[in-house]
Amino acid sequence: MRDYSNHIQHRDADRDVEITDITAHVVEGNFEWNIIEIETDAGVTGIGESYRGGGVPELVEYTKRFLLGENPLDVERLFRQIVQEMSGHGGTTGKVVTAASGIEIALWDAAGKILDVPVYQLLGGKFRDEVRMYCDCHAGEAYAVEDGATAYAEAEAYSPEAYANEARRVLDLGFDALKFDLDLEMDNDPDPFNGRLSNEAIEHKRQIVEAVREEIGYDVDLAFDCHWDYSVESAKRLAHELEEYKLMWLEDLLPPENMSAQIEVNGSTTTPTATGENRFRVHELSELIYEHGVDIVTPDPTTVGGLSETMRIADRAEENYMPISPHNVCSPIGTMACVHLGAAIPNFDVLEFHALEVDWWDDLVTRDEALIQDGYIEVPEKPGIGVELDRDVLEEHRFEGPS
User: Fold this and answer.
1) Which CATH superfamily is domain 122-384 in?
2) Which of 23, 78, 175, 343 could form a disulfide with 120 if both were Cys (CB 3.0 to 4.6 A apart)?
3) How far is CA 181 from CA 120, 135, 205, 354, 365, in A?
4) What is the pLDDT of residues 253-293, one digit of tens each?
5) What pLDDT is recorded for position 94?
6) Do 186 and 204 contact (CB within 8 A), yes or no?
7) Which part of the chain has CATH 3.30.390.10?
8) What is the distance of C-alpha 377 from the center of its chain?
9) Is 75 within 8 Å of 107 (Cβ atoms)?
10) Shortest CA distance to 82 belongs to which of 31, 13, 19?
11) Whole-number pLDDT of residue 220
12) Are the beta carbons of 46 and 38 closer than 8 angstroms?
């Protein structure tokens, strides 16, 4: 194991800072949000967020064995140290990288506060003053998450009219970019395992897309998510049927592992495709980008390795004239980290908002007004990521485990 001690010793006194504690809080929103805090002996606390779900708090606790006493300003070195120290725990992928992502974001927040600059400045500067959001509408009221798993409604709830009505409602909230889930329970009929879509299922999806387009017109960006459900031939057939509706993208048509299959589908259609949210670190996205297996790359900064790793992915995408639209199912903490990322990336397009049903979402941070205004978030000029936790709201919604 590589020894990192005594290699980094010399810096000015005002930047000679140490990490004194690292804590993970789990908040019960529409998902289980993993909020990470890093305390320092400078009186500064950095906050970040790791992707939702279990396992992260235990891994964050483990990192205290080697991160306490380190300087939080060495953000990229400490991320690499986590990967190295936890290589035997699967440190190059999976939950270790997810936990490291939230720690990395908290380190950036702490660094910004210590140096008295916003995070976007540390990432290289600003390309835009506000970040455009797209609203994930699920499948209208027909979709929910129960104990972390998809819960479907009765089949009649998935009518094209229901989708169109929800599109109109969200459009009236000020968003001009929308995404819906297009994978439905009926996709599993007659066989739940082989990934094939029947003609009836494809026609139903086409009718949904048509109904939404008729309701909102073509000046609104519209995407649909398929959640990795289909075979290559079904993905091709579906994408072909939807070409006339000029989608912003069709997301995650295939299971994520096979690059050749992604390339095959992407090359078969004029419907833009998007994927990337369940890949880890730049290595798992490089081939996808360089071989043009996707049109819009969608890494999740709270999964893929944090802000620096997402910047590396964005660089490769820019080399290939490809936009990046980060996946984001976070609380306001992870969302605001992504806003700074969106400010600093030239080829950034839109950022996901995935908590429309959480009416207290904004309350988790101390603010007088909603973060999202008419479908945009203003890039903050405060040090760090620009928001602070509301402790009372955090405690009110703290996740206590399965009932």
Assistant:
1) Enolase-like C-terminal domain (3.20.20.120)
2) 343
3) 31, 12, 10, 12, 28
4) 999 889 999 999 999 999 999 999 999 999 999 999 999 99
5) 84
6) yes
7) 13-117
8) 16
9) yes
10) 19
11) 98
12) yes
CATH of domain 13-117: 3.30.390.10
Find the helix or strand (DSSP H, E) in which 296 lies: strand 296-297
Largest Cα separation within the chain, whole Å, is 69
- The tokens describing 270, both together, are 């004029």
Burial of residue 147, with CB atoms counted within 10 A of its CB: 0-12 exposed, 13-18 middle, 19 or more buried: exposed
* Full DSSP string of 159-228: -HHHHHHHHHHHHTTT-SEEEEE---GGGGSS-SSS-PPPHHHHHHHHHHHHHHHHHH-SSSEEEEE-TT
What would the two tokens of residue 42 be?
Answer: 């400078």
What would the two tokens of residue 139 be? 């499948």
Query: What pTM value is reported for the model?
Result: 0.94
Q: What is the rounded distance in angstroms from the CA atom of residue 201 to the CA atom of residue 199?
A: 5
Instruction: Judge whether residue 27 has pLDDT over 70.
Output: yes
d(CA 65, CA 86) in angstroms, rounded, equals 11
> Rounded to an integer, what is the distance from CA 66 to the centroid of its chain?
27
Distance CA 279, CA 299 (A): 7
Every domain range in the chain assigned CATH 3.20.20.120: 122-384
Residue 390 makes CB contacts below 8 A (sequence gap 6+) with 363, 364, 365, 366
Res 142: pLDDT = 53
Whether the predicted pLDDT of 155 surpasses 90: no
Q: Which residue's entry shows tokens 């890949």?
A: 279
What pLDDT score does 12 carry?
Answer: 80
DSSP 324: B
pLDDT score recorded for residue 93: 79
DSSP annotation string for 6-75: TS-----GGG---EEEEEEEEEESSSEEEEEEEEETTS-EEEEEEPSSTTHHHHHHHHHHHHTTS-TT-H
pLDDT above 60: residue 296 = yes
